[in-house]
Structure formats: structure tokens, C-alpha cells
Amino acid sequence: MTMYPHSGVLPPQHANTPGLRSASHGVCRALPTLLATALLAACSTTPLPPWPSVRKVPPPKPPQAVVVPAPLGQPLAVPPATAPSPALPAGQPAALGNVLDNAAVAARFPDPAVRYHTPGLAAQRSAFTTNAELAQWLRDLAAGPLPAGTQAALLALGPSQGAEPIHALVLTRAPGTDPNSLAESQRPTVLLIGQQHGDEPAGSEALLVMAQELLRGPLAPLLERINVILVPRANPDGAQAGTRNTANGIDLNRDHLLLRTPEARALAALVRDYRPLLVLDAHEYPAAGDYLEKLNALPRYDALLQYATTANMPEFVTKAAQEWYHEPMVKALQAQGLSSDWYHTPATSPAGALRMAMGRALPDNARNANGLKNAVSLVVATRGISLGHRHIQRRVHTHVTALTNALRSTAERADKLEQVREFVDRDTTALACHGQVVLEAGPTPLDRNTTALDPNTGADRTLAVPWDSALQLRTLQSRPRPCGYWLAPSATMAVERLTLLGLQVLRVAEPGGVLVDSFRAADAAASTQPDARAAITLVRSAIDVPAGSFYVPLNQPLAHLAVAALEPGTPVSYTSHGLIESLSDTARVMSTPSLIFEEME
């Protein structure tokens, strides 16, 4: 057990570069946000790559088929055996069954010029790849034969709630497949996640295709530049039941901060250990759903895309997501004749007005939680929920096209991505005790047109609907940034979750005093209402902290995850959800503590 005093910097294995804080908060903090990257880079010991403000983009190529060697892709020789039903008469109210088989709508989504092959994509197959078939597919790939120099390992991330295995396949040219070997390879690691929602099978089927292409197909050369980890089915219980949520009813993609499910904890441990620079989350969105119910229209787009958009996202991670991933991905989809838009769903405001809402700004989904881990993090959602096997080749092709483009973008920018990660890690570490921190952010209302389909004729229909943009967030709550957070000895569950997220937590070895802002509830309801923001106030005082209590410092790279978890009164905080039982069990530490700590094992 190592003991050491805490004097403003973390122990050597976690410390930031000496002098970085004073430099960053002298000149750098005074710089306007949009100054040139070169000026920002001058404030850090880690230089950033040049970021061109004007780029020449070649004209898009005409749509063409991707050539995928057998058995991954083969030219289609015949049209689908089951012909869609005739178009509905104009003006007739649309029913779900009729809409999904409407010939006029189906004509807008023709099959691609290739056919992909997995167990669940076999001809005349009524079920998607089963959990047993998925496991066997991955075992066969890992067992070889493998190209010279390529390593493949099948990891058991742990059982699901229903005792189904959760598999991850590690592909690399490093000497080994453990986290240290991948880190020492100096290649960026990419994590692909599929089927967090059990009723969204196309992502899982696409990741099986991607795994084979990376080992035995045209994507194999990418492993000379990147490492890839694939989790084709994060929610095997939901996949088996054909339901969205995990077995206990929790939405896995709303559990990446609280970590209430073993599935979320398995993914958190994987990300903590392998520290991917890019995380891609493959989903599907409803092919009818609220569009049909609320607008009597159908979604038009093959793919909906969004990168991490939450409070305290590092500016340069967002720039990388936008310019190095989102923009090239849109062009790659266009080149295949596939359409895309920002991720959005129809929503109703508290006043009852219809709006289009982009993906949530809360830090509890995989997209945002991984963004706060300083990774580029994107969701790719294809049109698919309720379609069954309809258009499955096109849905898989959309995923394969988008994910392949992201892998190529990573390989092309490997060095620049690592520079961005190093800069952001140092910059976030240097922010402790300084300025303001945003506790909660919300979308900005805009006016924007989007294109939908008429469910009867299949024709484009322009919708002018108010739009809640997550690309421009408004600050809903902010407070002075603390130096860290104190937690009572009883907060062991919170400590366990924080360490799974990759945060450093220190145990107080000897009693001492600290200056804190304690949380106080203005009324009794505040402790039982997760969203009772106005009911919590701060009280400045000096307190004595006992040995065995905990300290979560903010001078560490993942500090903003700690803020998301430990500030009470926000919808997804640990206090709001009972991981910290009482407001008196935590406090904001407002000056560098002079305490003796022992690091958690």
C-alpha cells in the first residue's frame, strides 16, 4: 500500500506535466475559443495537428457498389422473392403493416449490389443470428487461419443477466492482445459496439461482417495502422427476446454512467482497460414509429448520425468528430447512394407542441459517456426497427459503409488523433480548481427542415418542424469548478462505479480537515426528487474528514465524468439515483487538500 500527501498534483503515475496548470490558466484560459489551433497548442507541452479552416472537397463520386469478396459479398442475381404490396391510394390513412410492405416506399430502399453473409442473413431465414451462432462465428474467426502477424482473441466480458456470454473480439498486429500490448503498439484502438438494444439486429449482423472483412477480407490492411475491438452483441438477452431493454428492464444505452447492469459494467471495464480513441455504436431507429403516428409520414434516411454532445465535451474531440469522421462518413454514404441526416426523433414539448429532438445531451448514453472519456464517439443508427428482415441487406450495407469509412479515417489520422487525446488529457487535468464547470446542458431550439416520405406514395415530403439542436448546447446549470469531491466511507458502491469508469479514487489514510462546499436540501422533497435542482444549495465550511473516506480529484483526464456523476440535483447523478444515499455523504472540495491518501487497489 502506497501512502503519499496530496499537494495539488496526483502521484507520479497520474500526475500532469509540471507547470502545465500555471501555463494553461495564465495565457491559455484567456484565449477566445475559436483562435487558431496553433495558439492553443502553444499552451501545452503536447502540440496539436494543424486544423485547416478551409478545405477543398472533391466532387462526390457517382453511386457505385462496394466490391466485397465472397463469402462476404456477392452480386445479387435475382430480386427479393417476396414482392411488396401495391402503393396505398393517395390520402388513405397509413397502417403499419401496409406501410412496411408498400411498394412505393420499398422502391426508395432498393437492395445494394452486394449480398452479405452471416447466419442471420441466410436466404429464407426468419430469425437473425442466435447467440450460439454468434459465439461460434467469433470462435471460428479467432481460431484462424490468420494472416501473418495478425493476432485475434475472443474475450469473455462476463455473463449477461440471463447468463448469456458477452463477447469481444480483439484484432491487432501487436505482439499480444492484452491492453498493454495494444497500448505499446502505438496504434489507435477502435471499439465497435452492436445491438445494445435487442430489437436492433442490423448492427450485430454488420459487426460480424466487419470482423471477417478485417481478418480475411479487404479491410485486413487496416490492422497495420489500427487495433480493432468488436462487441457485436452487447445485450444478448434482449437480442434473444427481441426486446429493446436488458432483462431487468433497464435500457442499456441509458446506463453508461450509473452502471446498474452487468452489461454496462462489462463495456465500462473494456473501455477502461483498452482506452479506445474511437467508439462507434451501431443502432437502428424506427422505420415508422412516432413519424407515422404523429406526422403520418415515414423517415427518409438510411442512417442517422451523431457524435458526442454533452456538457463539458472537449472542444478538439468535437472538432475531430465533426471534421475527421462525420463529414467523411456522410460523403461515403452518399457515394453508395445512401442517405443520412443528424440523429433525431419526433418529440412533444411540455406545452404539447411537436418538435424534432436530436440525441440526448445527458452523459448516461454510450455516445456521451465515451466522449467524456476523451474518445471520439459516434452513433450510427440505420432505418430498421419494426422492419424484421425487410431491407436487411441495405441496412447492413449502410452500417458496413459507415463503419468502414470510420476505420479508414482512423488509419489515415492515427498520429493526429493521439496528439488530440494527449492534449485533451492534459488540458482537462489542468482545469481543476479553476473557472466554471457545466452541470447540465440542453439543446438549442432552431427552425430546420427535414425530409420525410409520404407513406402512401413514397414521395419526399418536406417537414418544417422546430428542431432541438444538440450541436449547440445551452448551459442549464453551472457552478465554480471544485478541486475534487469528498465521499463518505459508506459510498463504496459509488466508488466501485467510478473506478469502473476509469476514474482515480483515493482513500483517506489519516483524518484531516478540508475546505468544502456542502450540499443542503431546501426541503425534504429534494432528497427524493432526482430533478429537484432548485432545492439544493451550497454551504461553504471547513470539515473534518475521517480515515476510510474517499477523495475523487479533478486533476485527472476523465474529470468531467466525475462531475457528471457526483453533482447532485441533475437527472443522472449518483445522488439522484441512490448510489450515494444522502447529500451529507458527499461534498465539493474547494481547495487543494493537505491529506494523506492511499491509492485504491
TrEMBL record:
Annotated region described as Disordered, given as residue ranges: 1-23
Keywords: Carboxypeptidase, Hydrolase, Protease
Protein's UniProt name: Zinc carboxypeptidase
PROSITE patterns, sorted: PEPTIDASE_M14
Domain (Peptidase M14) ranges: 127-379
Protein family (similarity comment): Belongs to the peptidase M14 family.
The keyword Protease is assigned to this record: yes
CDD domains in UniProt: M14-like
GO biological process: proteolysis
Keyword Cell cycle annotated: no
One Gene Ontology term of the molecular function aspect: metallocarboxypeptidase activity
Naturally occurring in which organism (per UniProt): Simplicispira metamorpha
Pfam families: Peptidase_M14 (PF00246)
